[in-house]
Amino acid sequence: MSPRPAPAPLLIACALGIEQLALRRREHGTPGGPVTVLRTGMGPAAAERSVTRMLADPALGRAAVLATGFCAGLAPGMHPGDLVVAGETRDPRGSVPCAGTELLVKELVRTVPGRTVHTGPLTGSDHVVRGHARSALLATGAIAADMESAATLLAAVRTGERPVAAVRVVVDAPEHELVRIGTVRGGISAFRVLRSVLPAFYEWHRSLLLPRR
Q1: CA gap 59, 198 in Å, rounded
Q2: What pairs with residue 69 in β-bridges?
Q3: Taking a C-beta distance cutoff of 8 angstroms, is the pair 69, 146 a contact?
Q4: What is the largest CA-CA distance in the chain?
Q5: pLDDT digits (tens, 9 = 90+) for 108-145
Q6: Element (H, E) at 120
């Protein structure tokens, strides 16, 4: 009888130290396999470089990859602390479909009750999105933007077939731009939400590894 293969690991990628701080307090193995939280640094180039280098490690060869952290909400009515689950990520090089989107929405609603969860395309940007740039991206059909998710998932699928996803917490939105002093509270709210979402990530990872019936 051949031994069962080891559980596939989960790589959670974020850009900023404050995002890593929110996530690292529970960094450990789960029933789905070992978990690594990677801080990539800001911007698409840094994200692509860091993720590609990390996935070159044979121990992470089969890893599922989830991009997370903060984002800019693009649609009117979005608020700091809202969650965005990407159906796909986009950048000028193309789009990457995400796996298990419905499951992530379900688990986030259960894990962070009372928080609004938005689902739709998450677009990449090489700069912080404000003002008219926000409106222009909304016109493409995207609901949120950040600088790393699209590059992270593109790097992940280029290194091998694997489940990928992106979940972001809105830190600013059309009526709540970070340039305003009052939105400091929005950043605190987003940080607290990000600290709470790991159980949903773990459940996504575990469920993707279950045998299909």
Answers
A1: 22
A2: 168
A3: yes
A4: 64
A5: 999 999 999 999 999 998 877 777 788 888 889 999 99
A6: strand 117-124
Bridge-partner residues for 145, per DSSP? 72, 123
Give the tokens for residue 207: 């469920």
Give whole-number Cα distances, 127 to 109, 130, 166, 171, 181, in Å: 30, 9, 19, 15, 20
Residue 213 has pLDDT above 60, yes or no: no
The DSSP secondary-structure symbol of 49 reads: H
User: Is the CB of residue 86 less than 8 Å from the CB of residue 150?
Assistant: no
Distance between CA atoms of 128 and 134, rounded to whole angstroms? Answer: 10
Residue type, 11: L
Considering the entire predicted model, what is its pTM? 0.87
Q: For the chain, where are the alpha helices, taking DSSP H only?
A: 17-24, 44-55, 101-111, 131-138, 149-158, 184-196, 198-209
Q: Give the residue carrying structure tokens 């590894």.
A: 209
Distance (Å, whole) CA 124 – CA 146: 5
Rg of the Cα atoms in the chain:
16
Smallest CA-to-CA distance from 14 within 42, 53, 34, 52 is with: 42
